[in-house]
Each structure stands twice: as C-alpha cells, then as structure tokens.
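Worked example (supplementary).
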Amino acid sequence: MADSATLEAVNIDNEAGNFTYPEDYEYDAGYGLTPDTIDYISDIKKEADWIREFRHKALKIFNKKPMPTHWASKDLENIVFDNIRYYLSKGQKPTRSWDEVPDDVKETFERLGIPEKERKFLAGVEAQFDSEAAYSNVKESLEKEGVIFVNSTEGLREHPELFKKWFGKVIPTGDNKFSALNSAVFSGGSFIYVPPGVKVAHPLQAYFRINAENFGQFERTLIIVDEGAEVTYMEGCTAPKFETATLHSAVVELVAMKDAKIQYITVQNWSNNVFNLVTKRGMAHENAEIRWIDCNIGSRLTMKYPGVIMKGRKARGEVISIALANDGQHQDTGAKMIHAADETTSNVVSKSISVGEGRSTYRGQVHIPKHLKGCKNNTECDALLINSNSRTDTYPAITVRGNQHATQHEASVSQVSEDQIFYMQQRGLSEGEAMSLSVNGFVNDLVREFPMEYSVELKRLIDMEMEGSVG
Amino acid sequence: MSQTLNIQNLHASVDGNEILKGLDLEVPKGEVHAIMGPNGSGKSTLSKVLAGHEDYEVTDGQVMMDGIDLMDLEIDERSREGLFLAFQYPHEIPGVSNANFLRAALQARLPKGEEIDAVGFYKEMYAKMDALSMDRKFTGRAVNDGFSGGEKKRNEILQMMMLEPSYAILDETDSGLDIDALKIVAEGVNRMRCPERGFLVITHYQRLLDYIVPDVVHVLFDGKIIKTGGKELAHELEEKGYDWLTNELVAV
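After joint prediction of all chains, the assembly is encoded as:
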C-alpha cells in the first residue's frame, strides 16, 4: 500500500474533541503533590476525617512505591509529577439542569453531543469538567426506585455508610503506584447504587472532560449493584491536544452482589498527550456477572487491565476490548481474571490495531487456584498490523492449578495486505476508505457488543483515525 | 470523444523484468474482446496494469479510456471512471459483509453529502443475486471469506452488475468453475452486454468462449498481441494449440 496515505492516516487527532476554553478556575491546588495539596482538596470538599486520613496514607504509599518500570514502557518515566496540577475547579456544584451549567462548560458538552444523547437514550448523565462534575441527573422514575447516581464527592457526603463499606475494598490503595496516587487526590467520578431487584433498562452515562493543560484528572468511581439488580454504565473521555503531558489516572471499583449484573462500557478517545493509567476491577459474588467492554483510541500511553474477582460460586467475568494505537501511541491493555470460587467462568476477547509506529500490547492474567473445581477461562487475542513498522506484543499469563478446569487460549496476528487494499480500491474505495473498512471489519464482531448508539460512534472514530485527510 | 479502451505500445515490468513489450489493443464499447495466450504470456499482468496495481511499472506507452489517460489516475479513480476488473483470485475481506462492501463501493461514487438509498439498494441487489442464483444469506457473509471458488467468481459478477462499469476485464473468470457455475456466470455477463459497455475477457481455454461469444479474439504471446481474428480463432487455437502461432513467430 502507498506509504503516503498511511502516513497521512497517522497523526490524525479526533478534531471533534480538540478544542479548549480559557482557564478560569476558582480553585487550583497548584503544581506538585505534597501533604498540603491533600489538605487543600479535603478542605474544599469539607471531608470527614477518615477520608482525609485515607488520602494522607495513600500519599505515603504513592511516594514509597516504585514505578512499575520493570515491565511497563519506559515512557512512564517521562511523567513529571511536580509539573502537574492535582485539583482544578470552578467551585461549581453539579446541577440538574444544563441551563445552570457555566456557559463554557455547557458549550463543551454540547459540542461533544452529551445533552443530545441524554435526551435520546440515557437514563442518567454525569458530566465532569476537570476535577468536578458540572452536571448530574438521573431520571426521576429511577430515583423513586432508590437508584443513586451522584458524583463521588456527593456520594461520600450523602451516603457514607454505603460508600465506606466498599470503598477501597476491591482495589486496595497499594495495588499499584497509580491506584495509590488516585487514592490520595481523587475527585469526581461516579457513585452508583442500585437496590435489590432493580433492573435499570437504559444506560447511565458519565463523561470525563479534561480542559486544562498540565493537569491530572483522578476520578474515582464506585458502583454497587445489589442482589438481582442490573445496570449498564458507560463512560466517555476526551481532552484537547496540548503540547505537554496530561495525566488521567482513575480508579473504578465495581461490586456485583448475588445474581447481579454490571456492564461497564468505555469509549475513550484521549488526545495523544494524555497518559492514561487506570485501575479497574470488579468483584462478582455468587452467580453475578461483570462485563467490561473497553474501547481505547488515542492517548500517548494507556495502561489498563480491567479485572474481575469471581468471589462467589458460578460468578462470571468478561473483558471485551478494542485498542487502536496510532503513531506515537502505545496501548498497553489486557485483563485480569481472578477465579476465587468453584464453577466460575471468565472470557477475554481482545482485538488491537497498530497503525504506523503505533504499538499495542496485550497483557493478560488468569488465575485459577488448585483447590477450586469446574472453572473455565477462554482467552482470545487478535492483533492487526497496518504497517510493517507497527508493533504488537502479547503476554498472556495463565496460571491454572488443579485438573478440574477448562482453559483455552488463542492468539493471532494479521496484517491488512496490499492485495486486499488493491482489491477494495479496484471497487472504487479510496485507500483511506479501504483501510477504514478493513479495520472496522476486523473489530466488527466486538463492536456489536456496544449499544447501537455507541457502535455508530465507534465506527466514526475508527473512520477518522484511519482516514483522516486521505481523500 | 472516442468511446474505446485504447492501449498503445504498452510496456510494463515487474521487479525489473519486462512482461508487456509493446502491446496494442483497442476495445470499442459494445464489443466483447477475448485475449487468449499460453501461461506466462502476460495476460494477468495486463489486467493488473490496467487496474493500476503498484507492483507493475509502466515504462512506455499509453492507455486511454474514453479519451481519459488511465495512467494519470489512482486505482480507485479508474474504478469510479468505469473500469472494472473481475479478479482471478478475489481477495477476502474478513468481517466486512458483502452488502456493506457493495454499499461502500456505490457510496464512493456519489457526491459528498449524498447518501445511498438503502431500500433501492437492497431491491436492486436482490434482483441481481436472483439472476445469479445466489442465496439471500450471502449478503450477510464476509466478502469472499470461506467462499468456494464458484461463489467467489459469482460474487465478482454480482459486483460488476452492481457497479455497471463502462469497461469490464474478466481475468480467467472461468478458472475453478464447474460447468453449471460457468453457465450462470456467462449468462450474467451476457445480460450485461450492451452498446454502452466493452468487455475484455482473458482466458486460457476456449470453453468460456462457447458461452460468452466474443466479437474479436486476440492472441497474446511474450507481451505482445501476435494475432487478431474473429471468434473462429478461438476454435482454431483449441484444435492446434498455440505452437503453430508461436513457431511461425520464431520463424519470422
């Protein structure tokens, strides 16, 4: 294939998200991270003592923990923690009406199409701008059934008993350096509780927007779905393209009680200056199901391995992920499946696409201990390379002890061949369109797992990444 | 403007080896021309050069399609201008359904901002699939993925029928077809014959030409057309082989 077209296809940013409004913040924790930063954040949020202590303790752990450089990309060393601001907000309280949202914030979300999506198909929306939510609303009917959907600050204040019970239990502070960082400075993110038996028919959506340069966004999400209840949560993320590095480091904890179902969908489209270092894990009790559906487009470096701890008998965990690494990007993604009860089942399907000098890595961990019976795991990872200088690596670690389990693992690497593109071009598609269609074909079976509105969005994002200015 | 596909003194190489060595050929609209020739004579090279495959370097000569210089155009531009190549080995496109592929190809022919009419598209596609005895389930299957040889070739003809080219090149469309599939494919081609369309049928065997009866037959040997005649030339070749022509050539 002509290198010119592929060269043009790389370096394309999603222009739809590439805009910014002037900075005008009432609260700014300043650059760098010290115990004072934590007190500053805690003071603004008027937090209880236990949470302030939790943050200080986390900071100590963060400072002590080494970077995970023994296996991760050296690029992590380029994060200068002193050049980052850890809290920025306009002092806004999240409103329930878009009319009350500050103009520039409102315009931001309108340009990203959030209010429109809410009207069309969502049961609730939370929109976070830098450190705090600007808008948060859930349909009245759900509220009446006892569904709670607020940001984490409000969750802590209004529902401390629920929050405290599960907070930091699925992902301990010291899990890794970045979970410790998040635990020290977290702000925003969603707190969701679905009472027993309530099945939320439409998705709840959170949207995370970074507007400021040299900033770190550290949202903290906790979702608790009680016995027999069900919810689908979706998050979208964007940031403008800055010259300097921006950090996004979230912690997401899910708890699915007996017979509950959680589906967590991410469509991330960070600009390629963002370090996206996220820890996501769910705990599935008896016969519960947790599915992570994860789409990673953009960012400079993403390290994300959604996990499920299958704690109860017959619990199920699933990770379905799509990653697209363009020039200058590294998508280091995967899954962790921890089987901790009999007859638990996990499924991992990962597809990655590397374009230009883009690099994608699959890192998977499956753990089935010896004393269990009847556990199953299926892992499939497929990589598609667009150019000969693209790179993909697969590191599956499957630890299965005992002989009463079933596991299978399949991996494949393929390349969009010159002849395939020639064939498609001969039918009238431009080189960019042919690439785009090939890539969409590669991920097609996974895209079907996304709700319709999102699969359309996903296809559009892939088209933009692949096509760009190629005519 | 002349309504022909006109090839003059075409020289083309692959990896520095010259394959086409001054080929002259003219296919006017409304005619079916067959190209026959032994293995290695340059038949498939000709089809790839006309379509614009980047492995082939055109070193001399020109190709005009209805007065437009083909060599100035990209692969996809040639297609949209009306050139179609039915591949000898159609490529698979995993995960992309036949319907979506055809739709994308037709969409590429519309001006920006204009959307294809989905209802009309399916209606037309189903009618053409019926003509080729293709199962409706076929629309949802990925392009050529897991297709038998016959299915692939039928799919090429379906694409041709949908895209309605001005000039269609059929590159050994008969290879790998049993007689029933061959008849269906030939019938599809015959239905497409009209004064507004020219065909260049490349084949190794005369058999196909019993069903797609050509107006003119050319013999390609060592990168050049060495003989041109009517449809009876194909029968003559079937009987005598290529040797009588090539020996003659060597003798000259």
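Two points are worth noting when inspecting this output. Residues 1-14 of chain A have pLDDT under 50 and may be disordered. Chain A touches chain B through 25 residues (CB under 8 Å).
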